[in-house]
Every structure is written in structure tokens, then in C-alpha cells.
Amino acid sequence: MKNNSFSWDAFNDAPVVGIMRGVTIDTIHRIIPIYIKAGFSTVEITMNTEGATDLIAEMRSVYPQINVGAGTVCSLEDLQKAADAGAQFIVTPIINEEIFAPCKALGLPIFPGALTPTEIYKAWTLGADAVKVFPCSQFGVGYIKDVLAPLNTIKLLPTGGVDKKNIGEFFKVGAVGVGMGGSLFDKALIQPGKELELEAHFAHIKAEIKGVQEPTLA
């Protein structure tokens, strides 16, 4: 297995997990250099993407300066495949208690998915490095603020419903990071010929979080 060292410094400098689902290696090679140029450093390839492990391995080889993780990890089998491919962190949409200890043994940060305060607290006590609040699209910034009122020691990573208009608000209420999929890797902007527009899009998002994030991970 490859060196799976996750750079917390890189993540904290740009605390966005870019979620890539259903992408091809050609698309990755076209847009990741733009992503890196904009100052972002963390990408998640979902395990339900065709050839996900090959994509993770390729990205680890070609882009060693960024964190490359595996998302939609729901089982020990998913975890082993992701780890063997060189994933540097693990993201789940659910709480599967079986994968926490193996992640710790492998030195892989884990961001498990949870929604209710009870689920969020459970994920944290099981050893989450941050809890992915999912799907946040139905609840928004106010929900994160409300959850953090009593659970202020838990690090939250809202995912779903985060876009360039509201991303700064999530950090202002105490999120340590966010997960972004289609609102970050906009389908219209990741097409060939849209590189300049994509660069401007990434720059806009980076500018929205600069100076507003307060808590950091690890």
C-alpha cells in the first residue's frame, strides 16, 4: 500500500473537499491542474464511480501535492479497495461502525456521514476526524449553527447544498470545512473549452472562504 499521509496543513488552508463522481481520467487531468492553481488541495473520488480505484491511484501518482480520498465508502470491502489504491482519507454517507478502527489502524482520517444530533455525536465518539453533515441541502446554514450550540466541540463538515453564495456563512457559524460536488465541479464548466471560466469559478469560491474560516482540523 502507498504512503497514505494526509496533509492537514493543506486542507486547513483550503478546507473544501471537492467531490468527484462519475468522472473520467481525461476530465480529471484537464480540471485538477486548474483546481490546484486556484489553491485547493483536497479531492474525493466516490467509490461508485466507474474505475474509482484506478482514478485514485492515477491521481496519487500524478498530483502528489494534493489530498486524494475515497468517498461513498460503505463497507470494509470498499475501505480495503480504497486503501489499496492509495486513498489518503475516507468519506462515508453513513455510519458503519466496522470501518472506524481499520481507518485508525491504517492512519486514514475518516469523515463519516451523519445528520441528526444523535448520529453526529455517535460518529464523533466513534472517532471521526470531522463529521460530514449529510445531506445538508435540506437544512442549510441555520442547522449547522443550531447543532453546534450544544455540540460545540464536534468538528462539522457540511456537505450538500453548499455553493459559492453561502459557503462563507457555513464557516462563519463554525464549520471546519465543507464538501462540494456539483456546485464546485459545475458540469457546464468542466467541459472542454471552459477552462478560463472554471478558473474564475474556483477563484470566486476560494475568495469567499478566505478570512472567514476559524476552526481548523487536527
From TrEMBL:
Family annotation (SUPFAM superfamilies): Aldolase (SSF51569)
Pathway where this protein functions: Carbohydrate acid metabolism
Pfam families to which the protein is assigned, alphabetical: Aldolase
An example molecular function term from Gene Ontology annotations: lyase activity
Keyword set, alphabetical order: Carbohydrate metabolism, Lyase
Record note on quaternary structure: Homotrimer.
NCBIfam families per the UniProt record, alphabetical: eda
Family of the protein in this entry: Belongs to the KHG/KDPG aldolase family.
Record-given protein name: Bifunctional 4-hydroxy-2-oxoglutarate aldolase/2-dehydro-3-deoxy-phosphogluconate aldolase
Organism the protein comes from: Flammeovirga pectinis
